[in-house]
Each structure stands twice: as C-alpha cells, then as structure tokens.
C-alpha cells in the first residue's frame, strides 16, 4: 500500500487540515509528552522542545486564526508576529494562572498553553476553510526563505541589516527566557505545606470549626494536609500527640548591645509534662503533589487546655518523636471531658515527656 493510498484512507476533514496547522497540533502534543513522560522529562530534550514551542506555537496559531488569507500580511510579517504574540500569550497566561488556585506549576502551565494553542489552531483551520481557495493562506516555504535572505543579507543599508539582526536576537532571547522559566524545573528553595482542615456541612474542606471540645473515648476527625514543593519525591511521616503542658517563664540573654552588655530577659516556654500518641501515618508524595488524609483522633484521658500537636517528618519517624526533631509542627488547644465515668489521668497511660 503506497503513501497516496494511505492518505486517502484518512477522513476528509483531516486531509483538509493545512500542513502548517497540523504541525502545530502535533507539536503541542509532543511538547506535553516530553514534559510529563519519564525519563524524557529529565533530559535536555524537554527544555529544547518546550522553549521552541513557547517561542512559536501559541503565537503562530493566534496569527493564523486572525489572518486566514494571504493578503493582509506577508510571510516575514507573519513569522515576526508569531514570535511577538507568543511572548504576549505566554506572559498573559502566566499572569492569569498566578491568581488562580492552580498557580504557576508545571501541569496547569502546560495544560493552559497546550489547550489554548489547540483551540486557536482549530479556529484557524475553520477560518481558512471559509476562505476561497485563491485567497486561502498557504505556507510559501521557498518565498519565506528568499524574503528572509533578502532582508538579512541584502538589505537596503548596513543600518537596516543591523536592526534586523538586533530585532531577531532580542525576540529570540526574550522568548527563550520565558520558555526556560516555564518548562525547566525551578530548583529554588524547597518547602512543604503542612496544615489542618475540617469537612464542612457541604463536604468542602475548610480551615475552620476545629474540634476543640472533645470527649474521652469518642473519635473526632481532622484532615491533615501535606503539599510537597521540595523539587523531589518525599516520604513523609505524621504523628499526632495529645500533650499535657505547662507554661514556664525562662531567662534568656539578648544579644550584646553596642557597649558589649547582654541584658537578661524572660520569655515563656512550653514544657511538655506528658504526651499520648493518638495518630500516626506515612505517605510518599511526588514534587508538587498534595495529599489530604482524614485522621480519627480518640483521646483516652481528660483535661483542659491540652495541646493536640501534629509532627511532620521527612524520611522516617524517629523512635521518640518530639517537636524538637520534627520538620514541621501544628497544634490545637483542646479540652477533653469525661464520658459517663472516671477517666485515667494522662500520667497513668501516657509516656513521660522526653
């Protein structure tokens, strides 16, 4: 079966898609592939294809949708507009994403740019179909090369040549910078989000209405949230402790002043008298991945102004978890009342504080 026969087997709407717009659509899919699929996503291919995609594809699709015929602008103007509008599209999409819940992360960035490019490509295909065959734009590859050579190598003056080179270099540098920022993973300072939520009456997760009044032996549910932004997969461990604490004023020395004298001051310190472990779990998250874990807390003692503390660890939970060894900590102040009888004091059932 020869190539012509295979071509005729394709549906007519696909055969009528202009070659340049079909290339843009394929380019968009390939870009998403190299950005997300391992191990290609960790090679220089990701940056090369991602940068060139940002450099040309969104702007070319937009220009093709705006100018479906070959009369309004010539080939060189179309190419220059494609690069210029790509810069504008990338900048505007980045600005829009920065104020959304998704933020400037790899997945929403690629989905937004790819989706917009494919949508503009579909519009461009339809607009070209609406043009008469004589007016319809076709990619004049040979004419483009000839025009580019004439502008770059045979300008009217040396000043024109220098300006042409400077313009192209500026556009390439500006768009390449944007593309690198979008598609190359940022290796800045990593961090982990750690927070507590509850489930509202409508099922939505909210940072409100925490269970501060608890009953001995009755379960209360909290949602523990962890967001990994450490630029690598991380194995997290979480420990929940119900603690009996006291506040103690301790004397500390300030930094020496200009005369070299350090003035002692007092500052409150939280001393853990007893602790009872009420929850523990582990989870592994990839970079930019978030997990919400519903945790049931059942206190086995009573008391007022107890501290329900949550300790977050990376790469394993130590034998004796405390806030001094934790990567992140959270806490709530709770009261635990008795349920139909006496409850053992915390000191009788919990391990002593270390």
TrEMBL record:
InterPro entries, per the entry: DUF1616, UCP018671
Residue intervals passing through the bilayer: 21-40, 46-67, 79-100, 106-125, 161-183
Keywords, sorted A to Z: Membrane, Transmembrane, Transmembrane helix
A Pfam cross-reference name: DUF1616
Residues annotated as domain DUF1616: 24-335
Keyword Phosphoprotein included in the entry's annotation: no
Domain of life: Archaea
UniProt entry tagged with the keyword Nucleus: no
Protein known as: DUF1616 domain-containing protein
